Structure prediction request, 430 residues.
Amino acid sequence: MSTNPLILIVGNGGREHALAWKLAQDSARPRVVCAPGNAGTALVATNVDIPAIDLDALVAWAVEHRPHLTVIGPEAPLCAGLADRLQEKGLRVFGPNQAAAQIEGSKVFSKDVMVKAGVPTARAGTFSDPEEARAYARSLSGPMVVKADGLAAGKGVLICPAVEQAEAAIEEAMVRGAFGSAGARVLIEEFLEGEEVSILALTDGERIVMLPSAQDHKRIFDGDKGPNTGGMGAYSPAPIATDDLWPVVRARVFEPTLRELRSRGIEYRGVLYAGLMMTKGGPQVLEFNCRFGDPETQVILPRLEGDLLPLLDACADGVLDEGAARWRDGACVCVVMSAGGYPGAFERGDAIAGLEEAGRMPGAVVFHAGTRRDEERVVTDGGRVLGVSATGSDLPSAVARVYEAAAKIHFANAHYRKDIAWRALARTTP
Prediction:
Protein backbone atom coordinates (compact mmCIF):
# COMPACT_ATOMS: atom_id res chain seq x y z
CA MET A 1 0.00 0.00 0.00
CA SER A 2 1.32 3.41 -0.97
CA THR A 3 1.32 6.36 1.35
CA ASN A 4 -1.68 8.71 1.35
CA PRO A 5 -4.19 6.12 0.07
CA LEU A 6 -7.67 7.44 -0.68
CA ILE A 7 -10.34 6.02 1.65
CA LEU A 8 -14.06 6.53 1.12
CA ILE A 9 -16.30 6.22 4.20
CA VAL A 10 -20.03 5.96 3.48
CA GLY A 11 -22.34 7.43 6.13
CA ASN A 12 -22.92 10.53 8.24
CA GLY A 13 -23.24 9.39 11.86
CA GLY A 14 -21.10 9.14 14.95
CA ARG A 15 -19.84 5.73 13.85
CA GLU A 16 -18.52 7.21 10.61
CA HIS A 17 -16.88 10.13 12.42
CA ALA A 18 -15.14 7.64 14.73
CA LEU A 19 -13.92 5.62 11.74
CA ALA A 20 -12.66 8.76 9.99
CA TRP A 21 -11.00 10.01 13.18
CA LYS A 22 -9.14 6.74 13.69
CA LEU A 23 -8.16 6.28 10.04
CA ALA A 24 -6.86 9.86 9.87
CA GLN A 25 -4.27 8.87 12.51
CA ASP A 26 -2.96 5.87 10.56
CA SER A 27 0.75 5.78 9.72
CA ALA A 28 -0.02 5.59 5.97
CA ARG A 29 -1.55 9.08 6.24
CA PRO A 30 -4.67 8.22 4.26
CA ARG A 31 -6.78 10.86 2.54
CA VAL A 32 -10.23 10.25 3.97
CA VAL A 33 -13.44 11.23 2.19
CA CYS A 34 -16.87 10.90 3.84
CA ALA A 35 -20.14 10.66 1.93
CA PRO A 36 -21.99 12.63 3.08
CA GLY A 37 -20.27 13.08 6.46
CA ASN A 38 -21.15 15.77 9.01
CA ALA A 39 -19.62 18.80 10.68
CA GLY A 40 -17.28 16.58 12.70
CA THR A 41 -15.97 14.45 9.85
CA ALA A 42 -15.11 17.71 8.06
CA LEU A 43 -12.45 18.29 10.74
CA VAL A 44 -10.54 15.09 9.85
CA ALA A 45 -11.72 14.32 6.30
CA THR A 46 -13.25 15.81 3.17
CA ASN A 47 -17.04 15.61 2.89
CA VAL A 48 -18.79 14.99 -0.42
CA ASP A 49 -22.50 15.67 -0.65
CA ILE A 50 -23.73 12.17 -1.58
CA PRO A 51 -26.34 10.48 0.64
CA ALA A 52 -25.40 7.04 1.97
CA ILE A 53 -28.35 5.43 0.20
CA ASP A 54 -27.71 7.04 -3.22
CA LEU A 55 -25.98 3.97 -4.61
CA ASP A 56 -25.76 5.26 -8.20
CA ALA A 57 -23.97 8.44 -7.16
CA LEU A 58 -21.65 6.60 -4.75
CA VAL A 59 -20.64 4.08 -7.41
CA ALA A 60 -20.09 6.86 -9.96
CA TRP A 61 -17.87 8.78 -7.52
CA ALA A 62 -15.87 5.66 -6.66
CA VAL A 63 -15.40 4.70 -10.30
CA GLU A 64 -14.10 8.19 -11.05
CA HIS A 65 -11.78 8.49 -8.03
CA ARG A 66 -10.78 4.81 -7.52
CA PRO A 67 -10.36 4.80 -3.72
CA HIS A 68 -7.93 2.32 -2.18
CA LEU A 69 -10.81 1.09 0.03
CA THR A 70 -14.47 1.95 0.57
CA VAL A 71 -15.71 1.49 4.15
CA ILE A 72 -19.51 1.23 4.29
CA GLY A 73 -20.87 2.34 7.67
CA PRO A 74 -24.68 2.01 7.78
CA GLU A 75 -26.75 -1.13 7.25
CA ALA A 76 -29.10 0.33 4.60
CA PRO A 77 -26.54 0.63 1.75
CA LEU A 78 -25.05 -2.75 2.70
CA CYS A 79 -28.46 -4.41 2.52
CA ALA A 80 -29.15 -2.60 -0.75
CA GLY A 81 -26.04 -4.15 -2.32
CA LEU A 82 -23.55 -1.27 -2.42
CA ALA A 83 -20.61 -3.60 -1.74
CA ASP A 84 -21.61 -5.84 -4.67
CA ARG A 85 -21.88 -2.92 -7.06
CA LEU A 86 -18.48 -1.54 -6.09
CA GLN A 87 -16.83 -4.95 -6.32
CA GLU A 88 -18.33 -5.44 -9.80
CA LYS A 89 -16.34 -2.35 -10.79
CA GLY A 90 -13.13 -3.87 -9.46
CA LEU A 91 -13.11 -1.77 -6.29
CA ARG A 92 -12.11 -2.98 -2.84
CA VAL A 93 -14.71 -2.81 -0.08
CA PHE A 94 -14.87 -3.28 3.69
CA GLY A 95 -18.39 -4.50 4.41
CA PRO A 96 -20.44 -7.57 3.53
CA ASN A 97 -22.15 -8.12 0.19
CA GLN A 98 -25.93 -8.06 -0.10
CA ALA A 99 -26.37 -11.80 0.51
CA ALA A 100 -24.28 -11.64 3.70
CA ALA A 101 -25.94 -8.42 4.90
CA GLN A 102 -29.22 -10.34 5.15
CA ILE A 103 -27.92 -11.33 8.60
CA GLU A 104 -29.26 -7.91 9.65
CA GLY A 105 -31.60 -7.12 6.78
CA SER A 106 -33.87 -10.10 7.45
CA LYS A 107 -34.66 -11.29 10.97
CA VAL A 108 -36.11 -14.48 9.44
CA PHE A 109 -32.92 -15.21 7.48
CA SER A 110 -30.79 -14.49 10.54
CA LYS A 111 -32.84 -16.79 12.78
CA ASP A 112 -32.70 -19.57 10.17
CA VAL A 113 -28.91 -19.27 10.00
CA MET A 114 -28.66 -19.43 13.79
CA VAL A 115 -30.92 -22.47 14.07
CA LYS A 116 -29.14 -24.36 11.28
CA ALA A 117 -25.74 -23.45 12.76
CA GLY A 118 -26.71 -24.49 16.29
CA VAL A 119 -26.11 -20.99 17.66
CA PRO A 120 -27.84 -20.47 21.05
CA THR A 121 -30.85 -18.22 20.50
CA ALA A 122 -34.47 -17.82 21.58
CA ARG A 123 -37.15 -20.19 20.24
CA ALA A 124 -39.17 -18.42 17.55
CA GLY A 125 -41.73 -18.73 14.79
CA THR A 126 -41.96 -16.93 11.44
CA PHE A 127 -45.26 -15.70 10.00
CA SER A 128 -46.62 -13.99 6.90
CA ASP A 129 -50.26 -14.43 7.93
CA PRO A 130 -51.53 -12.27 10.81
CA GLU A 131 -53.96 -14.89 12.11
CA GLU A 132 -51.26 -17.57 12.25
CA ALA A 133 -49.03 -15.08 14.08
CA ARG A 134 -51.78 -14.39 16.63
CA ALA A 135 -52.34 -18.10 17.18
CA TYR A 136 -48.62 -18.65 17.82
CA ALA A 137 -48.52 -15.70 20.24
CA ARG A 138 -51.43 -17.20 22.16
CA SER A 139 -49.54 -20.51 22.39
CA LEU A 140 -46.62 -18.89 24.22
CA SER A 141 -46.71 -18.31 27.95
CA GLY A 142 -44.98 -15.28 29.40
CA PRO A 143 -43.46 -12.27 27.65
CA MET A 144 -42.42 -12.41 23.99
CA VAL A 145 -40.86 -10.24 21.30
CA VAL A 146 -42.43 -9.39 17.94
CA LYS A 147 -39.85 -8.42 15.30
CA ALA A 148 -40.49 -6.99 11.85
CA ASP A 149 -38.47 -9.05 9.39
CA GLY A 150 -36.83 -6.19 7.51
CA LEU A 151 -34.98 -3.00 8.36
CA ALA A 152 -37.22 -0.65 10.35
CA ALA A 153 -34.80 2.03 11.56
CA GLY A 154 -34.47 0.33 14.94
CA LYS A 155 -38.21 0.56 15.62
CA GLY A 156 -39.32 -2.88 14.44
CA VAL A 157 -38.62 -4.81 17.66
CA LEU A 158 -41.58 -4.77 20.05
CA ILE A 159 -41.27 -6.27 23.54
CA CYS A 160 -44.64 -7.64 24.63
CA PRO A 161 -45.20 -8.56 28.31
CA ALA A 162 -48.36 -10.54 27.49
CA VAL A 163 -50.46 -11.90 24.61
CA GLU A 164 -52.58 -8.75 24.39
CA GLN A 165 -49.56 -6.58 23.62
CA ALA A 166 -48.26 -9.17 21.14
CA GLU A 167 -51.56 -9.15 19.26
CA ALA A 168 -51.44 -5.35 19.16
CA ALA A 169 -47.88 -5.50 17.82
CA ILE A 170 -48.92 -7.97 15.12
CA GLU A 171 -51.79 -5.66 14.17
CA GLU A 172 -49.42 -2.68 14.01
CA ALA A 173 -46.78 -4.42 11.90
CA MET A 174 -48.76 -6.74 9.64
CA VAL A 175 -52.19 -5.15 9.27
CA ARG A 176 -51.67 -1.39 9.67
CA GLY A 177 -48.24 -1.52 8.00
CA ALA A 178 -46.48 0.68 10.55
CA PHE A 179 -43.07 -0.52 9.29
CA GLY A 180 -43.94 -0.69 5.61
CA SER A 181 -42.78 -3.77 3.75
CA ALA A 182 -40.37 -4.58 6.61
CA GLY A 183 -43.35 -5.73 8.71
CA ALA A 184 -45.10 -7.87 6.09
CA ARG A 185 -43.40 -10.85 7.73
CA VAL A 186 -42.71 -11.10 11.46
CA LEU A 187 -40.68 -13.19 13.83
CA ILE A 188 -42.20 -13.97 17.23
CA GLU A 189 -39.77 -15.24 19.81
CA GLU A 190 -39.53 -15.95 23.51
CA PHE A 191 -38.35 -13.05 25.66
CA LEU A 192 -34.92 -13.70 27.14
CA GLU A 193 -34.10 -12.54 30.67
CA GLY A 194 -30.65 -11.24 31.48
CA GLU A 195 -28.18 -8.46 30.71
CA GLU A 196 -27.17 -7.49 27.18
CA VAL A 197 -23.64 -7.21 25.87
CA SER A 198 -22.29 -6.41 22.40
CA ILE A 199 -19.38 -8.36 20.96
CA LEU A 200 -18.14 -7.44 17.50
CA ALA A 201 -15.70 -9.34 15.34
CA LEU A 202 -13.74 -8.46 12.25
CA THR A 203 -13.75 -11.33 9.76
CA ASP A 204 -12.51 -12.17 6.29
CA GLY A 205 -15.08 -14.96 6.02
CA GLU A 206 -13.00 -17.55 7.87
CA ARG A 207 -10.61 -15.92 10.32
CA ILE A 208 -11.88 -13.79 13.21
CA VAL A 209 -10.55 -10.90 15.30
CA MET A 210 -12.88 -10.33 18.23
CA LEU A 211 -13.11 -6.73 19.41
CA PRO A 212 -13.43 -5.63 23.05
CA SER A 213 -16.86 -6.02 24.63
CA ALA A 214 -19.23 -3.09 24.95
CA GLN A 215 -22.64 -2.35 26.39
CA ASP A 216 -25.10 0.05 24.81
CA HIS A 217 -27.85 2.00 26.61
CA LYS A 218 -30.96 2.05 24.41
CA ARG A 219 -33.56 3.80 26.59
CA ILE A 220 -33.84 7.57 26.51
CA PHE A 221 -33.97 8.21 30.28
CA ASP A 222 -31.84 7.29 33.30
CA GLY A 223 -32.54 3.95 34.88
CA ASP A 224 -33.38 2.48 31.45
CA LYS A 225 -36.76 4.20 31.36
CA GLY A 226 -38.71 5.54 28.40
CA PRO A 227 -38.73 4.56 24.73
CA ASN A 228 -35.91 2.87 22.89
CA THR A 229 -33.50 5.00 20.85
CA GLY A 230 -30.62 4.34 18.51
CA GLY A 231 -28.37 4.38 21.59
CA MET A 232 -27.83 6.95 24.34
CA GLY A 233 -24.33 5.87 25.29
CA ALA A 234 -21.99 2.94 25.66
CA TYR A 235 -18.93 1.76 27.52
CA SER A 236 -16.10 -0.71 26.96
CA PRO A 237 -15.20 -3.15 28.34
CA ALA A 238 -18.41 -4.56 29.81
CA PRO A 239 -17.49 -6.44 33.01
CA ILE A 240 -20.27 -8.96 32.41
CA ALA A 241 -18.18 -10.26 29.49
CA THR A 242 -15.73 -12.17 31.69
CA ASP A 243 -12.59 -13.82 30.30
CA ASP A 244 -14.22 -17.24 30.13
CA LEU A 245 -16.90 -15.90 27.77
CA TRP A 246 -14.60 -15.26 24.82
CA PRO A 247 -13.83 -18.82 23.74
CA VAL A 248 -17.52 -19.70 24.16
CA VAL A 249 -18.69 -16.86 21.92
CA ARG A 250 -16.03 -17.63 19.32
CA ALA A 251 -16.83 -21.37 19.23
CA ARG A 252 -20.60 -21.21 19.62
CA VAL A 253 -21.53 -17.95 17.87
CA PHE A 254 -19.04 -16.58 15.35
CA GLU A 255 -17.42 -19.72 13.97
CA PRO A 256 -20.61 -21.74 13.36
CA THR A 257 -22.38 -18.69 11.87
CA LEU A 258 -19.60 -18.10 9.35
CA ARG A 259 -19.50 -21.83 8.60
CA GLU A 260 -23.24 -21.91 7.92
CA LEU A 261 -22.99 -18.87 5.66
CA ARG A 262 -20.14 -20.49 3.70
CA SER A 263 -22.25 -23.64 3.30
CA ARG A 264 -24.82 -21.42 1.56
CA GLY A 265 -22.18 -19.96 -0.74
CA ILE A 266 -21.98 -16.70 1.22
CA GLU A 267 -18.57 -15.31 2.20
CA TYR A 268 -18.93 -12.70 4.92
CA ARG A 269 -16.21 -10.03 4.92
CA GLY A 270 -16.45 -7.06 7.24
CA VAL A 271 -17.57 -6.69 10.83
CA LEU A 272 -20.13 -9.04 12.36
CA TYR A 273 -21.90 -7.68 15.43
CA ALA A 274 -23.47 -10.12 17.89
CA GLY A 275 -25.99 -8.70 20.34
CA LEU A 276 -25.97 -11.20 23.21
CA MET A 277 -28.23 -11.75 26.19
CA MET A 278 -26.38 -13.16 29.16
CA THR A 279 -28.99 -15.58 30.51
CA LYS A 280 -28.71 -17.99 33.43
CA GLY A 281 -28.07 -20.70 30.86
CA GLY A 282 -25.25 -18.80 29.15
CA PRO A 283 -25.06 -16.34 26.24
CA GLN A 284 -27.81 -16.35 23.64
CA VAL A 285 -27.88 -14.29 20.45
CA LEU A 286 -30.60 -11.65 20.29
CA GLU A 287 -29.61 -10.36 16.87
CA PHE A 288 -26.78 -9.95 14.40
CA ASN A 289 -25.83 -6.67 12.76
CA CYS A 290 -23.81 -6.45 9.56
CA ARG A 291 -21.82 -3.32 10.51
CA PHE A 292 -20.09 -1.48 13.32
CA GLY A 293 -22.43 -0.48 16.13
CA ASP A 294 -23.26 3.10 16.97
CA PRO A 295 -22.33 4.17 19.68
CA GLU A 296 -20.22 1.03 20.36
CA THR A 297 -17.68 2.09 17.73
CA GLN A 298 -17.10 5.32 19.65
CA VAL A 299 -15.86 3.34 22.70
CA ILE A 300 -14.05 0.52 20.88
CA LEU A 301 -11.88 2.43 18.39
CA PRO A 302 -10.31 4.75 21.02
CA ARG A 303 -8.99 1.58 22.68
CA LEU A 304 -7.29 0.26 19.51
CA GLU A 305 -3.51 0.60 19.55
CA GLY A 306 -1.87 1.30 16.22
CA ASP A 307 -3.37 1.43 12.75
CA LEU A 308 -6.91 0.51 11.74
CA LEU A 309 -6.51 0.45 7.95
CA PRO A 310 -4.40 -2.76 7.77
CA LEU A 311 -7.16 -4.62 9.63
CA LEU A 312 -9.84 -3.38 7.24
CA ASP A 313 -7.62 -4.16 4.24
CA ALA A 314 -6.99 -7.69 5.49
CA CYS A 315 -10.74 -8.35 5.84
CA ALA A 316 -11.37 -7.10 2.31
CA ASP A 317 -8.54 -9.21 0.89
CA GLY A 318 -9.25 -12.42 2.84
CA VAL A 319 -5.92 -12.43 4.69
CA LEU A 320 -6.87 -11.46 8.25
CA ASP A 321 -4.28 -12.23 10.94
CA GLU A 322 -6.12 -13.29 14.09
CA GLY A 323 -3.39 -11.78 16.27
CA ALA A 324 -3.19 -8.45 14.45
CA ALA A 325 -5.11 -6.19 16.83
CA ARG A 326 -3.80 -4.79 20.11
CA TRP A 327 -5.96 -3.06 22.68
CA ARG A 328 -5.25 -0.50 25.36
CA ASP A 329 -5.95 -1.29 28.98
CA GLY A 330 -8.44 0.84 30.85
CA ALA A 331 -11.92 1.83 29.70
CA CYS A 332 -13.78 4.14 27.36
CA VAL A 333 -17.24 5.67 27.86
CA CYS A 334 -19.48 7.49 25.37
CA VAL A 335 -22.38 9.76 26.32
CA VAL A 336 -24.80 10.64 23.53
CA MET A 337 -26.21 14.17 23.59
CA SER A 338 -29.60 14.27 21.87
CA ALA A 339 -32.01 16.95 20.71
CA GLY A 340 -34.95 17.62 23.02
CA GLY A 341 -37.91 15.45 22.09
CA TYR A 342 -35.86 12.65 20.55
CA PRO A 343 -36.77 9.86 19.73
CA GLY A 344 -39.97 11.75 18.86
CA ALA A 345 -40.20 15.09 17.07
CA PHE A 346 -37.23 17.42 17.60
CA GLU A 347 -35.88 20.74 16.36
CA ARG A 348 -32.92 21.20 14.00
CA GLY A 349 -30.63 24.14 13.43
CA ASP A 350 -29.74 25.02 17.04
CA ALA A 351 -26.22 26.38 17.52
CA ILE A 352 -23.80 24.18 19.49
CA ALA A 353 -21.29 25.79 21.88
CA GLY A 354 -18.36 24.33 23.81
CA LEU A 355 -17.16 21.74 21.28
CA GLU A 356 -13.54 22.91 21.29
CA GLU A 357 -13.41 23.16 25.09
CA ALA A 358 -14.70 19.60 25.47
CA GLY A 359 -12.33 18.27 22.82
CA ARG A 360 -9.30 19.80 24.53
CA MET A 361 -9.79 17.70 27.64
CA PRO A 362 -7.15 14.93 27.95
CA GLY A 363 -8.55 11.61 26.82
CA ALA A 364 -11.78 13.12 25.48
CA VAL A 365 -13.02 13.30 21.89
CA VAL A 366 -16.35 14.62 20.58
CA PHE A 367 -17.84 12.53 17.78
CA HIS A 368 -20.47 14.29 15.69
CA ALA A 369 -23.63 12.50 14.58
CA GLY A 370 -26.54 14.83 13.76
CA THR A 371 -24.63 18.02 12.98
CA ARG A 372 -23.93 20.30 10.05
CA ARG A 373 -22.03 23.52 9.49
CA ASP A 374 -24.06 26.69 8.98
CA GLU A 375 -21.54 29.30 7.87
CA GLU A 376 -19.31 29.74 10.92
CA ARG A 377 -21.54 27.79 13.31
CA VAL A 378 -22.00 24.09 13.97
CA VAL A 379 -25.71 23.37 14.41
CA THR A 380 -27.88 20.41 15.29
CA ASP A 381 -29.17 18.33 12.37
CA GLY A 382 -30.49 15.10 13.87
CA GLY A 383 -31.95 13.42 16.91
CA ARG A 384 -28.67 12.06 18.24
CA VAL A 385 -26.45 15.10 17.91
CA LEU A 386 -23.08 14.22 19.50
CA GLY A 387 -21.29 11.34 21.16
CA VAL A 388 -18.81 12.53 23.77
CA SER A 389 -16.22 9.80 24.44
CA ALA A 390 -13.44 9.65 27.03
CA THR A 391 -10.86 7.10 28.06
CA GLY A 392 -9.58 6.45 31.55
CA SER A 393 -7.35 4.07 33.47
CA ASP A 394 -10.50 2.37 34.72
CA LEU A 395 -14.25 2.70 34.26
CA PRO A 396 -14.92 5.18 37.11
CA SER A 397 -12.22 7.56 35.84
CA ALA A 398 -13.53 7.34 32.27
CA VAL A 399 -17.08 8.05 33.49
CA ALA A 400 -15.92 11.08 35.49
CA ARG A 401 -13.96 12.45 32.53
CA VAL A 402 -16.73 11.98 29.95
CA TYR A 403 -19.30 13.80 32.07
CA GLU A 404 -16.87 16.63 32.72
CA ALA A 405 -16.43 16.98 28.95
CA ALA A 406 -20.15 16.71 28.17
CA ALA A 407 -20.92 19.49 30.68
CA LYS A 408 -18.88 21.93 28.57
CA ILE A 409 -21.19 21.50 25.53
CA HIS A 410 -24.45 23.41 25.19
CA PHE A 411 -27.31 23.63 22.71
CA ALA A 412 -31.02 24.34 23.08
CA ASN A 413 -32.94 21.56 24.88
CA ALA A 414 -29.90 19.26 24.95
CA HIS A 415 -30.56 15.97 26.70
CA TYR A 416 -28.24 13.20 27.83
CA ARG A 417 -28.35 10.39 30.33
CA LYS A 418 -26.41 10.86 33.56
CA ASP A 419 -26.02 7.13 34.35
CA ILE A 420 -24.09 5.59 31.47
CA ALA A 421 -22.23 2.46 32.67
CA TRP A 422 -24.37 2.21 35.81
CA ARG A 423 -24.60 -1.58 35.65
CA ALA A 424 -20.85 -1.97 35.42
CA LEU A 425 -20.22 0.55 38.18
CA ALA A 426 -22.69 -1.26 40.42
CA ARG A 427 -20.95 -4.55 39.69
CA THR A 428 -17.46 -3.22 40.44
CA THR A 429 -18.32 -1.08 43.49
CA PRO A 430 -17.64 -2.92 46.78
In short: DSSP finds 14 helices and 24 strands in the chain.
